Amino acid sequence: MDLNEHTKWLVDFYKKRKWYDLSPEIRMNFLIEEVGELARAIRAEEIGRDHPGEAPQSKSQKDDNLHEELADVFDQLLIICSKYGINPASLMDDSENKLHRRWNE
């Protein structure tokens, strides 16, 4: 599945559950929540988590969690793009153009 196919599938999935009706401002709060979960997953990968309420995780479990949290952040970004009519693929060009301009490269 490519980026456009996934975005369409995701928007349809959200619309079925009426999640798509939530405002971009609320979506932003969900994005922040997911970024926090991503930060926790990266911490587990890099320095571990010594938490009495959590069982130790294997490397494979940590990797799976990191992938899951990255996907959750990615999906929130795709929904925000959709809400504003932005083609997410265009963001790659925007990123490169900005860095080329900023660093004269």
Automatic annotation (TrEMBL):
Coiled coil spans: none
Entries under Pfam families matching the protein: MazG
InterPro entries hit by this protein: MazG-like_dom (IPR004518), MazG-related_YvdC (IPR011411), YpjD/YvdC (IPR047046)
Superkingdom of origin organism: Bacteria
Transmembrane segments: none
Residue intervals of the NTP pyrophosphohydrolase MazG-like domain: 24-102
Region (Disordered): 46-65
Keyword list, A-Z: Plasmid
PANTHER family: IG HYPOTHETICAL 16995, NUCLEOTIDE PYROPHOSPHOHYDROLASE
Protein name: MazG-like family protein
Lineage, uppermost ranks: Bacteria, Bacillati, Bacillota, Bacilli, Lactobacillales
